[in-house]
Amino acid sequence: MNSPFNNQNPMNGSPSPFEYSSQPMTVAESSVDVRLDFIRKTYSLFLAGILMALVAGTICLNSAPVFNAAISVLRSPLLSIALLFGLAMGAQAVSRIEGLNYAALFGFTAFMGFLFAPVLAMYESRVPGIVSQAAILTFIAFGSLTAYAFISKKDFSFMGGMLTVGLIMLIAGGLANVFLFKSSGASYWMAWVTLLLFSGYVLYDTSQIIHRYDAKGYVAAALALFIDFFNMFMAILRILGGRR
User: Fold this and answer.
1) CA–CA distance from 232 to each of 40, 179, 191 (Å)?
2) CA separation for the pair 61, 207 (Å, rounded)
3) What is the pTM of this model?
4) Residue 181: its pLDDT value, please?
5) How far apart are CA 31 and CA 24, in angstroms?
6) pLDDT value of residue 219
7) Average predicted confidence (pLDDT) for the chain
8) DSSP structural state of residue 27
9) Whole-number CA gyration radius for the chain
10) Can you give the residue ranges of every domain in the chain?
11) Tell me: the pLDDT tens digits for 150-171?
12) HSE, side-chain direction, 13 A CA sphere, residue 206
């Protein structure tokens, strides 16, 4: 028996005007103009998110009360993780609600800039110029992976399960190192794992942008790209800093 939600005509396989699909049309199935508009919105919001993080970080570094607040949060790893995951999931949850989605996205990216500004300041004080080097290397790596995904047009959806398992293991290992082992060597090698993992996520998320997202998913897509970029940046920064 054919389901009423099946949008294929059982006689010839063509869409029926009397039936509909519960799934929205993906950008890949849309017109060229829709695809280009979706990509423009996604990457504009992604870059705006980076700019918002820079602004928030600058404010943090130039305001003693804000800087001290960031330090207080960083001193509690569990609180930091809870806030980061909570804000990220909240931004994802409202990513289709016009107006609120932008506020949630930029609120999350601003919080990231605020929270990690003291960390960047610490690295810069130890090795002048290291933050700029990490940023340049991150843009090169991120841009190269993005270009590969767009040029090859490969579907990297098969990586989703592996990346999720890897992320869970990475978080568990990071928490164990923070609370139990406190090893700078382990932290250094985990930065390499983080870089590899989120390089995979760049391929996966870019593939989702090309093949899976619908036209209303640009905020969620920008959020995913920002998280990938930021984690790559912090991993490269940690690697450049060596085992210190």
Assistant:
1) 22, 23, 9
2) 36
3) 0.89
4) 85
5) 14
6) 97
7) 91
8) G
9) 21
10) 31-240
11) 999 999 999 999 999 999 999 9
12) 22
Other CB atoms within a 10 A radius of the CB of residue 64 amount to 9
- Residue 94: which of 225, 209, 219 has the closest Cα? 219
Q: CA 50 to CA 137: how far, in whole Å?
A: 15
Model confidence over 22-67: pLDDT tens digits?
568 899 888 999 999 999 999 999 999 999 999 999 999 999 999 9
**Angle at the Cα of 109 (from 103 to 115), degrees rounded to 5?**
125
- Which tokens hold the place of 146? 């993005």
Is 184 a residue whose pLDDT tops 90?
no
d(CA 180, CA 157): 35
Nearest to 199 by CA among 145, 135, 132: 145
35 by Cβ neighbours in 10 Å (0-12 / 13-18 / 19+) ranks as middle
Is residue 163 within 8 A of residue 171, CB to CB? The reply is: no
Buried b / exposed e over 185-197, threshold 16 CB at 10 Å, is eebeebbeebbeb
